[in-house]
Amino acid sequence: MEELFEIWTWSALGRHTKPVGLINVNGYYDGLLAFLDRMQADGFVQGRHREMLFSGEDVGEVLARMTVSLDDAAKQWLAEKGYDPAYGARPLKRVIQKELQDPLARLILEGAINDGEAITVSAEAGALTINGRAVGRSALPPAEAVIQ
């Protein structure tokens, strides 16, 4: 909570102007969001500050509010990894989560991707890349390269 209000302070000082996504799992932050809406209605928070905070039920919903573009190489990579002759495209959701959503969330938490930044996903050398950076399990070195 402290960080959220710190960001709002920075916004008031002109040091931060980008949106902030809040993952509201099972409505955990509903009370806070209602409180903030009330603060705006009562004039304690400016509308532009309240509008910079958006929420979603999961990482995917929050990320959907950001600009993410997949090039043809990324789409082809996901199609190949997410298809199994026995199960069809059923594995695709898990591949997207493990190879794209999880690494993207990690990059955001690490500060490697800023709020509101355009995100470009591609595929190179057998791994997905996000803004030119290899990510996901496929980007990890083989186990024998790590163990010496």
Question: What would you say this structure looks like, in words?
Answer:
With 148 residues, this protein is α/β, with parallel strands linked by helices. It has two domains: 1-65, Rossmann fold (3-Layer(aba) Sandwich), CATH 3.40.50.450; 66-148, Helicase, Ruva Protein, domain 3 (Orthogonal Bundle), CATH 1.10.8.60. Helices cover 45% and strands 16% of the residues. It contains seven helices and six strands, in the order αβααβαβααβββα. The chain has helices at 2-12, 30-41, 47-51, 59-64, 72-81, 92-110, 143-146; strands spanning 20-23, 53-56, 68-70, 119-124, 127-130, 133-135. Strand 5 and strand 6 form a beta hairpin. The longest helix has 19 residues, at 92-110. The chain is elongated and about 60 Å long.
